[in-house]
Specification:
Elements: E1 3-5, E2 15-19, E3 22-25, H1 26-37, E4 46-48, H2 53-65, E5 70-72, H3 78-87, E6 92-95, E7 105-107, E8 123-125, E9 129-136, E10 142-148, H4 149-166, E11 176-179, H5 186-197, E12 202-204, H6 211-220, E13 225-229, H7 231-239, E14 249-252, H8 259-269, E15 273-279, E16 283-289, E17 296-298, E18 303-305, E19 312-315, E20 318-323, E21 326-332, E22 335-341, E23 345-348, E24 351-354, H9 355-362, E25 370-374, E26 387-391, H10 397-411, E27 420-423, H11 438-453
Parallel strand pairs: 2-12, 4-5, 4-6, 5-9, 6-7, 11-12, 11-13, 13-14, 14-15, 26-27
Antiparallel strand pairs: 1-8, 2-3, 9-10, 15-16, 16-17, 17-22, 18-19, 19-20, 21-22, 23-24, 25-26
Length: about 450
């Protein structure tokens, strides 16, 4: 079986990460990986809860050296940890800051290991399962999706090549990454951890959340530099009024971005903004520069077939035909438009749309800082109607209702106009990714409406 190096080894003195302005070399990484690997349990699966992005990468490498996989679940609640123990006997936690239930914990050592003059460079078998990405099943039981090392490596190489092209560079080596998304999320894992390990980039170890912290992290990052973020974080950053340094690329994912917000970001950060598209099953497979149109272009070698609810990707780093969980309009084998997720399609009065599509338009309305549609399961009169929740602190409730209805009337079928527009201080988004988990959002929406009806 073929094997490939754990990391890009073009220059072992080149930084893999940067912590508070101090570089951490690839040579140091190899030493830290080997030292941690010797402390890990002989068997089991690693639940890597390291908050520091470099330490997360060290944990990933140490697990691979020991022939173990890392687990990337949708959350880290005690219930989820217990479910992981049932799915993967011997599951243990690697952490630098938090305890998680009663499972065995391995703590990162303080400081760094001593570096040998001629470090051993581990190789990983291409077919070895490097990570298990877990999604929430309909019954609440997490569903594992195994990712082989070769799959991850080829996907990272394709992403690095594409992003370098957007930046006008011959390769991705030497780019500095600042990411607002956690390393434990598949997007953050691929576009920060793997790009530094395998793409030759340098990743900032922190995960800034507040606008001032994001701007400071970007300012201290040497150029060329890239921001890895989400629409939620990006909008908060631009709305904050914080002075922003010029960068070389903004990468965005987890929800479709409006052209208006993309244009604001390109002006505010003086750099192209690129959205990246992927799925749990395929990894990242396509990009688009949002201001240039709605069409996505697949990575080199990846082709699409089918259309609508049954679009299939294959080729490049996707070895087997894989049905996507989204509704696509396939323009040609390497180009498509994203119409919405198959699990958020709604049908009202015989007409079909997706909540993602409606949210896309809602968040493009002036005065709406954040917004999301919700479709109740039932209604007192038997006619279910959409509700729009909006964060619009600078507009009165009466005015934002009129504005949302008027603007949405220009963009969508009348069947999808909201019956109610509810102003809220904020939406219950997951801090790291900016997502709105379906079940949690529904419970929150019902609670907000119940409180409003009692006033």
């Amino acid at each position: 079986m073929s094997a490939t190096p754990l990391l890009w080894t073009g220059d072992l003195e080149a930084p893999l990460a940067r912590r508070h302005g101090v570089d951490i070399s690839r040579r140091q990484y190899l030493a830290d990986v080997q030292t941690l690997a010797e402390r890990l349990p002989e068997t089991g699966a690693m639940l890597n809860l390291s908050g520091d992005r470099y330490r997360f990468a060290v944990g990933l490498g140490a697990a691979l050296v020991r022939g173990q996989c890392s687990l990337l679940p949708p959350n880290f609640t005690p219930d989820m940890v217990e479910r992981l123990r049932g799915l993967f006997p011997g599951t243990y936690v690697l952490t630098d800051h938090v305890e998680a239930g009663t499972v065995h914990h391995v703590w990162h050592a303080e400081g760094h290991a001593s570096t040998p003059a001629a470090p051993s460079i581990p190789e990983v078998v291409e077919s070895a399962t490097a990570v298990q990405v877990l999604t929430s099943g309909s019954t609440g039981t997490p569903v594992p999706h195994a990712k082989a090392w070769g799959f991850l490596r080829l996907g990272c190489e394709a992403e690095a090549t594409r992003l370098a092209q957007y930046m006008g560079l011959s390769s991705f080596v030497g780019v500095t990454l600042v990411a607002t998304v956690p390393a434990q999320h598949m997007y953050g894992f691929e576009s920060s951890v793997l790009l530094s390990l395998l793409g030759g980039a340098t990743v900032d170890t922190e995960r800034p959340f507040y606008p001032a912290d994001i701007a400071a992290a970007l300012a201290r990052a040497p150029r060329p530099r890239m921001l890895v973020t989400t629409p939620f974080h990006l909008k908060s950053l631009l709305d904050s009024g914080v002075a922003l340094p010029a960068i070389d690329l903004t990468l965005c994912a987890t929800a479709p971005l409006s052209p208006q917000l993309a244009a604001r970001a390109e002006a505010g950060l003086a750099a192209p903004l690129v959205e990246i598209y992927g799925s749990t099953e395929t990894g990242q497979v396509a990009t688009r520069r949002t201001v240039q149109g709605a069409e996505w272009t697949t990575f080199d070698g990846v082709q699409l077939s089918g259309d609508g609810d049954a679009s299939v990707a294959q080729g490049g780093h996707v070895p087997q035909p894989t049905t996507l969980a989204d509704v696509l309009e396939v323009v040609n084998p390497t180009s498509f438009r994203l119409l919405g997720r198959s699990n958020d399609l709604i049908n009202i009065a015989g007409k079909r749309s997706s909540l993602g599509h409606l949210n896309y338009h809602l968040n493009g309305i002036e005065g709406v800082r954040d917004g999301a549609f919700w479709l109740p399961h039932d209604a007192p009169d038997g006619v279910v109607r959409l509700v729009a929740f909006v964060v619009a602190p600078d507009v009165s409730a009466e005015e934002i209702h009129k504005r949302v209805v008027a603007e949405m009337r220009l963009r969508v079928d009348p069947a999808f106009l909201p019956r109610r527009v509810v102003q809220v201080p904020e939406l219950p988004r997951v801090q790291g990714t900016g997502k709105l988990p379906t079940t949690a959002f529904a419970a929150w929406a019902e609670q907000v409406l119940a409180q409003a009806s009692r006033r």
